[in-house]
Amino acid sequence: MAIGGVGAPVVAEQGFSQVGMDEQAFDEFYATSYRRLVGQVYAMCGDLAEAQDCVQEAFIRAWTKRRTLDVEQSPETWVRIVASRLAISRWRRAQKARRPVDRSSSPTRTGEPDELRVLLTRALQQLPPAQRRAIVLHHLCDLSVVEIAEETGTPTGTVKARLARGRAALGALLGDHLPEEHPHG
What span, in angstroms and rounded, lies between the C-alpha atoms of 185 and 183? Predict the structure, then answer.
């Protein structure tokens, strides 16, 4: 493939090749994707520092694979999946190290909004990953069903079903735990 020659594809001019990305293309990819991915992973894990660490680690892994990442199959999706899996693994390790008594020993430190956030985060963590991702992307990242379908590579009907099932599951999980001033239904 001729880069910059007559008849060269536009993709070559952007730094992409059939094999993957060059350094400049990867830098552009990082610059345009990092904040969005941190926001999405943050919504999934509820800890900004953890989300930043996981996305950074995912980008480090993507950097080592930049020449083999399929640019046609959305490298951002690959990074999001890796970052999400890292966040889940870290959360599981933290849960094993933490005792339930530790969380309940200081009820005065958390106010009403923080309690609701904890309930929502715990409820989201109980959803299947695909449903959780759809709920987070739609309700917390303000993506449309079509945008979610494009990002996740799933049909819009599947996204709608995941949203409906996720909402129903959240309603069941949060139904008896929501404070009075946050009615549901």
Answer: 7
For residue 183, being part of any structural domain is answered with no
Q: What is the pTM of this model?
A: 0.49
- pLDDT tens, N- to C-terminus, the chain (185 residues): 333 333 333 344 444 444 578 888 889 989 999 999 998 888 888 888 999 999 999 999 988 888 777 777 778 888 988 998 898 888 888 777 765 554 444 444 444 456 777 788 888 888 898 898 899 888 887 788 998 998 888 999 999 999 999 999 988 888 776 655 544 44
Q: What is the CA radius of gyration of the chain?
A: 20
Residue 32: which domain range?
A: 11-99
Same domain, 90 and 127: no
CA distance 118 to 106: 14
The answer as to whether 105 is a domain residue is no
Distance CA 27, CA 9 (A): 20
User: How many other CB atoms sit within 10 Å of the CB of residue 99?
Assistant: 10
Last residue of a domain, one of 99, 121, 142: 99
Tokens 């599947």 belong to which residue? Answer: 158
Neighbours of 116 (CB within 10 A): 17
